[in-house]
Write a structure and sequence with these properties.
The chain contains no helices and 4 strands. By secondary structure, it is mostly beta strands. About 0% of the residues are buried.
Length: about 50
Amino acid sequence: MDESLNVKYDLPKNLHGRLGLPSNSDHRPVEGATGTDHPYRIALGREL
């Protein structure tokens, strides 16, 4: 099962910040590895 939590913050002067926290499940992980990955994304952007 894959799930994701995404948040966007509007900042002054057409800027925005984003935070993403996806969760990925692996049904057949390699021996010694966990069955779930928790990567994260952080971004700062500008809308034109």
